TrEMBL record:
InterPro entries: 4Fe4S_Fe-S-bd, 4Fe4S_Fe_S_CS. Its cofactor is [4Fe-4S] cluster. The keyword 4Fe-4S applies. It comes from Rhizobium sullae (Rhizobium hedysari). Gene3D superfamilies: 3.30.70.20. Keywords: 4Fe-4S, Electron transport, Iron, Iron-sulfur, Metal-binding, Nitrogen fixation, Plasmid, Transport. GO terms for molecular function: 4 iron, 4 sulfur cluster binding; metal ion binding. Residues 1-30 form the 4Fe-4S ferredoxin-type domain. Pfam families: Fer4_7. This is Ferredoxin-like protein in nif region.
Length: 64
């Protein structure tokens, strides 16, 4: 499974893009998106998902 970003809640701060260890988050059009083929949910690298831990808006980076 991968994570997704709830576009309507996203402030477009970009914190998640820079913290993603698998380089799965990019800015496309007018929103940030997670590439499900690249997203590893930070398994094996961190105890928590980095996108969700740095996001200033709770429950914006969530499991898809």
């Amino acid at each position: 499974m991968a994570f997704k970003i709830i576009a309507s809640q996203c402030t477009q701060c970009g914190a998640c893009e820079y913290e993603c260890p698998s380089d799965a988050i990019t800015f496309k059009g007018e929103k940030y998106v997670v590439d499900p083929k690249k997203c590893t949910e930070c398994r094996g690298e961190f105890d928590t998902q980095q996108c969700a831990s740095v996001c200033p808006v709770p429950k914006t980076c969530v499991p898809a």
